[in-house]
Amino acid sequence: MRRKAGCGDRAALAALTVVALAGACSSPSPPAPSSSSATSSTRQNAAAPTVDREDALAAVLARRAAAVRAHDRAAFAATLDNPASGFGLRQLAQYDALSRLPLGTFTYGTPEPAPALGADRVAQLGPDAWVARVAGRYSLAGYDSATREFESYFTAVRRGSRWLLADDTDGGTQVQLWDLPRLTVLRSATTLVVGSGPASRLRPYLALGDLAVSRVRSVWTSGWNARLVLVVPPTATQMAEQVGQDPRQVAQVAAVTDGPIATTGRAGADRVVVNPGAFATLEVKGKQVVVTHEATHVAVRATTDRPVPLWLSEGLADYVGYRDIGATRSQVAAALLDRVRAGSGPKALPDAADFDPSRSTIAPSYNAAWLAVCRIVDARGEVGLVRYYRAVATTPRGARAPGDPDANAEAAFPAVLGTTETAFTRDWLAYLRRLAGS
C-alpha cells in the first residue's frame, strides 16, 4: 500500500491524507521454474526416477531441518556437498539467519522431481544429479498461529552411497525471511522485527509496532493474539522479492501485509513488509499511520473468515491508523476534497478498480473509504463499526459459502446499522460536499 509524504508543517499532515496504502493483503504466487531447469537431459533424467533416490533425499532434508531446529551448524553443513563452495557459503549464511529466528515449526515435505537438468549441468555435477521441488513449512513461535509454506528447488548429487545438496539455483526457489542479508532480529512483548543491518536501524520499527498493536487493540478488541511481525529489507528490490512482486509494482508502496489464508478463511502467519525507500520519505506520524494501518489488516485477517469490499477493509484500516494522530478530517482527506470542490468527486462508494494504482490515482479513494467508515462511527460509534464489519466479514453458521462481499455488506446495513446502503451512500456524499465547503 502506498504512502506519500510532503514537506513543511502542512505537508506533514497532508502526507497523512495520502498515506494511501496500495493493495497488499494477498500471498504471492510461487515463482515459475527458471529456464535453466527446463532443458532436456539424460538421467532425471531416467524415465522413472527411483523411489529410493527420493527417499534418500527426504532423509537428507529431515536431517537438515532437525539441524536447524536444534541449532546444530555442523549437522546442517554435513548435508551440503561442498560447504566451502558459493552454494555452501550461502547455505551456511541461511543457517545463521535461521538460528536467529524464533522458529516454532521448520520442516520439509516429500521431494518431487523437477524439470530435468541440462546436459551441461549433468556434466558438471555427475550423471546421477537431479533437481527436486520441495515444499517446506515454518512458523515463528509466539507470533504465528499457523504455518507458512515455502518452496525450494534443491539439486542433489550422489557421493558414494550418500546423497548431498549441491545447489538451489536450478529452479524457482522462493526468497524467504532468512535470505535477507545481515539479518537482525529484535522483539518485544508484542512485536517481532526481522530485518537487515544493525539493531540501531531496526529499533525504531519495534516502537512503531508496539504502538500500532496497542492502537489496534483499542478498536478491534477481541480474538486477535496481538502479535505483529515487521520485515524490514535493505532495499526496495529485496522488499519486492519478499512479497513476490515486480519491483515496479511496489515502488511507491511503504508497507505490505502478506500472508496465506487458510482453508478456514483466516490468516495466522502474516508479515508486514516495509519498503525502506518509500517508508523513509514519511514523517514520524505518517510512519505510525502506515504500521497501524497494516497491523489492523493483520488483526482483521486473523479473526474473520470472509472478504469484505475494499472500501470497508481499507476504510477501517485507515480509521484505526488516523484515529490517534490529532489531524482533522479536512486535513487527512485533502486529496479527495479537492476533487469534490472541482466537481469530480465520487458518485458511489469506491470499488476495487478505484484502489488499483495502474488505473487511477488512489489517494482520493482511500480518503473516500476512510470518511465512509468515519460516518458509520458518527452514527453508531466504534462498537457499531466493529459489529458491522464483523457481520460482513463472518460467514453465518450453517452457510455453505462466504457469498459475495458487496452483497454481504449491503445486507448488513439494515441488519446492523438500521439503514440501507443507498441511504448511507446518499448521506456520505452529502457529508463530503459539506466537508469540502467548510
Walk me through the topology.
Blueprint: H1 8-17, H2 51-70, H3 73-77, H4 86-100, E1 103-108, E2 112-113, H5 119-125, E3 130-140, E4 148-159, E5 162-167, E6 183-187, E7 191-196, H6 199-217, E8 228-232, H7 236-243, E9 255-258, E10 271-274, H8 276-280, H9 284-303, H10 310-322, H11 329-332, H12 334-341, H13 363-393, H14 405-417, H15 421-437
Parallel strand pairs: 7-8, 8-10
Antiparallel strand pairs: 1-3, 2-3, 3-4, 4-5, 6-7, 9-10
Helix pairs in contact: 6-9, 9-10, 10-13, 12-13, 12-15, 13-14
The counted number of beta strands is 10
The number of helical elements comes to 15
The helix-and-strand class reads: alpha+beta
Number of domains: 2
Instruction: Characterize the quaternary organization of these chains.
Output: single chain
Helical content class: 40-55%
% residues in beta strands: 5-15%
What's the gyration radius in Å? Answer: 25 Å
Shape descriptor: elongated
CATH topology (level 3) name of the largest domain: Neutral Protease, domain 2
Please trace the helix and strand order, writing H or E for each element.
HHHHEEHEEEEEHEHEEHHHHHHHH
- Spans of at least 5 consecutive residues with low confidence: 2-48
Q: Can you tell me the CATH architecture of the largest domain?
A: Orthogonal Bundle
The CATH homology group name of the largest domain: Neutral Protease Domain 2
Averaging pLDDT over every residue, what do you get?
89
Amino- and carboxy-terminal Cα gap? 30 Å
CATH class of the largest domain: Mainly Alpha
Largest sheet properties: 5 strands, antiparallel
Q: What do you see in this structure?
A:
The model is unreliable at 2-48 (pLDDT under 50). The chain has helices at residues 8-17, 51-70, 73-77, 86-100, 119-125, 199-217, 236-243, 276-280, 284-303, 310-322, 329-332, 334-341, 363-393, 405-417, 421-437, and strands at residues 103-108, 112-113, 130-140, 148-159, 162-167, 183-187, 191-196, 228-232, 255-258, 271-274. It has 15 helices and ten strands. The radius of gyration is 25 Å and the shape is elongated. It starts with 7 loop residues before the first helix and ends with a helix. It is 45% helix and 14% strand.
